[in-house]
Amino acid sequence: MGILLFITVLLISACGLIYELVMGTLASYLLGDSVLQFSTIIGCYLFAMGIGSALSRYINRGLAYRFVWIELILGLVGGFSSALLFLAFAYTQGFQLLMYTIVIVIGMLVGLEIPLLMRIIRGRYHFRDVVANVLTFDYLGALGASLLFPILMVPHLGLVRSALLFGVLNAGVALWSTFLFANQLPRTGILRIVCLLVLAGLGTGLAEAKKITMAAEDNIYADEIIFARDTPYQHIVLTRFKDDIRLFLNSHLQFSSRDEYRYHESLIHPGLASIPAPRRVLVLGGGDGLAIREILKYPQIESITLVDLDPEMTRLFSTNPMLTALNQRSFLAPRVHVVNADAFLWVDSSTESFDFIVIDLPDPTSYSLGKLYTTAFYTAAARHLSAQGLMVVQSTSPMFARDSFWCIAATIRQAGLKTYPYHVYVPSFGEWGFVLAGNHDYQPPASFPQGLRFVDLKGLHALFEFPPDMEPLAEPPNRLNSQVLVHMYDEDWKDISH
Amino acid sequence: MSRTRRSFLQAASFSLVGLSLKAERNVDGGFVNDSFKQGHLLRDRSSFPPPRQTVRVPIVIVGGGIAGLSAAWRLEKSGFRDFVLLEMADSAGGNSRWGQNEITAYPWAAHYVPVPGQKSVLARELLEDLGVLKNGESEERYLCFAPQERLFLYGRWQEGIEPAVGLTQKDRDQFKRFEAQIEHFRGTGNFTVPMETGFSQKTADLDRISFAEWLRQQGMDSRPLNWYMNYCCRDDYGATADTTSAWAGIQYFASREPEEKGPLTWPEGNGWIVRRLLERLGRFVRTGQMVHRISHNGNQVRVLAGEIEYKADFVIFAAPTMLAPFVVEGVTPLHDFQYSPWLTANLTLDRLPATYGGDPTWDSVFMDSPTLGYVDATHQSVRTHIDRTVWTFYWALVKGTPAENRQLLLNSDWNYWKEAILHDLERVHSDIRQCVSRIDVMRHGHAMARPTVGSIYSDERRRLIKGNGRILFANSDLSGFSIFEEAQFRGVAAAEKALAVLGGHIHAGSR
């Protein structure tokens, strides 16, 4: 009896500490600044424990009965805490509020546990032994948990399943207590059924957790994954390391928050600033809202239409606070109209005309995506250009995929447009290339909007110069029936990756 | 007592089997476009009601497939508009019929046209008219998207249908020798599209032996080569190499340019061409009109269709020529017109099988399968994300005689064919049953002309090409095999013969 009691103490202490560690780690992953996150969470947690201990004085009757219930609630709240917080991060703006609420609830319940337990068993032992043994096992449990957490739990189970596993332990303790304190409990039968129900709920969570957890993916990406989701169209992953947020679509890097301004300023301004009075802009792709952030720097623009296939992308980048901070809430601007549609179908069916068309689509890694880099596609897109209109196309790297880059330029030329290729260095990507195109000659801009960090008049000319290792190559145009680009792209990147 | 118990156990185990079968996905579907009944009414010389109405019209076209529509196209284009086209089925199209569901349009038979060479003048003219060719260049969206064809062999996919992996030196030598032979035949100029342009007595000997026999004479015994030759015969003629005339086997390869780009294709296959033609010619077309009698009446031709009697100066008989002995007065039973029985099926897939393997491809073929594989109807879509699709499954029934296979087609129920099709697909796509929600099956008892030994140079065929007075024959089967360009050529040729006589004064008179 004695040893069983004290193992109970060890387990509940371990559970409590694990929840605290899970919160701290999760907050560091998602919000960055781990010192701040751990300090505030530990502080809140300890403070809440104090409240719990203080409140324990008001519980006078049915101690064992209430203890079982506390274990059950702890198991549920603690067990699902991690999963709930991941979902809250992805879908709501109230992540921090929810997190601290959970921290306080768990802290208070943990604070109640030990005083109640000591009072339940005080009749059986000397007070001196109760205090000594309970506290010894309490600290032993804490040691075990703090070693298990970084070595076994996070690497092998991930945060979601670690929390759920300890939720199961908590609920297990509740069930066990119904036997341990059977003589002090009324209606043990009903209580045991409740325990089994909670256990079943947590067990299901554990089995289904793979859908939420990212543990398996962690080894693909260098940084911590803070968001991962399979949509019908692609696999979206966000990672974070310190203040660097990266977006991956189907494992391909789309941007790093540290240097994306170089990419997006270069994508937009050399073309858009050269158009005398642009009013209407079309963006194909660009569901992260970063290109439209740059376009919104032109007050004379009346309307921006963004066509992106995946509603989940545009939703994520219009609601998540961390990401809307990055795109400066560009999706919420009244001038912006989002259409979730297939770019090719939309371009075929629309009759609108635009002064500037931005084609910022994923690289041609497959025949499906390759359709968006064909003479047929550029011909269809060019039909939407106004008289003064220009088009800019993200065209992969002229350095690492030199054939592909010049093939895209040749394809746009084949579609009947004049082309002006240029390139820029983006540290996280390397040398990156774009092709400006239009029905008329390109006149470089006389000025740029205020506040740009990379693009300026002085450096503009250099972007259009290609050093010998990126010089133009004669390439055939890419057509729907040949799709030479897909092979070329594959070969180009095979040469530099393993 | 023990008997009851055994039957109880039997029933119980059957119901368990039933339950486990039910756990599998339910597949809907049935037979579509059956035309046996109408055809057999003609064959059996049933009695038809006397006409109640007489219509005078200079030209009647019988049959709304590519041949009939091409005749109409030529008449309309030359300003001649006093004609009707009578089609037996509810919709025109013949072997280019198509279907449509909530996912895509899809073909029921012919699904592509090779990019016509410079000598295929008529096909080029039609495709220019329809905007498929612009200044001689094919419109990109109508050329088959990449990747086009793949073959499953030795447990893997290869690009292209001609076997290329696992070849021995001997196989490679024979493929090379075959190519050299074909190059020689191509050089003679006797193998052309349409066939009539280059047709010559010089190559008559090749019609006296089978293609398989010719290959044997050339010492070409390579297994992959022979599989491929058989596949090509099954695909274009619905027959095996040993039942195909060597002339036709060589025509298949020698009539096309080796570096030909293409083919041209659309989601609904050649149904796309029918749709475009019907947009121009729909007002001349009368569907659901079964012609049961055509006879000469002095300088006129009498056509009985349902309760209408047409009195025409010319009849262009573009329906399968095999029907002529049952319909056209004075045509005796035909011996050299044989036809291959086919089965096509359209399978609705709610998702691609996990075992699909590789990039979505237009045409997928399994080596050593009795079927011809499947074509993906959404392949010509410019959409980047395609989750649901329709596969058109092709099966020329060549094992046994055509008559036996026609019996098999008539006597087996839909469930038999559903299982046969899924079984074939399961060779490669083990999870196909979890992906398919519907299988519609079309049975074609006489799908296409069968170029048997001796049939190409047959006197009977040459006689019918000349026509029967004012009744002009126009089906592609006059060429001995059923392909788009032959149908178009025969249809246009018949229209031009009629125009040569009528063109001037009728045209002027009708203004």
Could you characterize the architecture of this molecule?
With 498 residues, chain A is an alpha/beta fold. Chain A has 16 helices and 11 strands. In chain A, a hairpin with a 2-residue loop joins strand 3 and strand 4 (252-256). Chain A is elongated. Chain B is an alpha/beta fold. Chain B has a domain at 47-95 and 267-334 and 452-510: 3-Layer(bba) Sandwich (FAD/NAD(P)-binding domain), CATH 3.50.50.60. Chain B has 15 helices and 21 strands. Chain B has an 8-stranded mixed beta sheet. In chain B, helix 3 (66-77) runs parallel beside helix 10 (271-281) and helix 7 packs across helix 9 (246-254). Residues 1-5, 14-23 and 505-511 of chain B have low confidence and may be disordered. The A-B interface holds A 232-233, 309, 342-345, 348, 366-369, 371-372, 374-377, 479-483, 486 and B 140-141, 143-148, 261-262, 359-360, 382-387.
Features:
heterodimer; A: 498 residues; alpha/beta; Growth Hormone, Chain: A; 7-stranded mixed sheet; 4-stranded antiparallel sheet; 54% helix; 15% strand; B: 511 residues; FAD/NAD(P)-binding domain; 8-stranded mixed sheet; 5-stranded parallel sheet; 35% helix; 20% strand; globular; disordered N terminus; disordered C terminus
Summarize the model shown.
The complex is a heterodimer of chains A (498) and B (511). With 498 residues, chain A is α/β, with parallel strands linked by helices.
- Largest sheet features of chain A: 7 strands, mixed
Number of domains of chain A: 2
CATH evolutionary superfamily of the largest domain in chain A = Vaccinia Virus protein VP39
The CATH class of the domain at 47-95 and 267-334 and 452-510 in chain B is Alpha Beta
Task: Give the count of helical stretches of chain B.
Answer: 15
Largest sheet of chain B: 8 strands, mixed
Mean pLDDT of chain A: 91
Structural class of chain B: alpha/beta
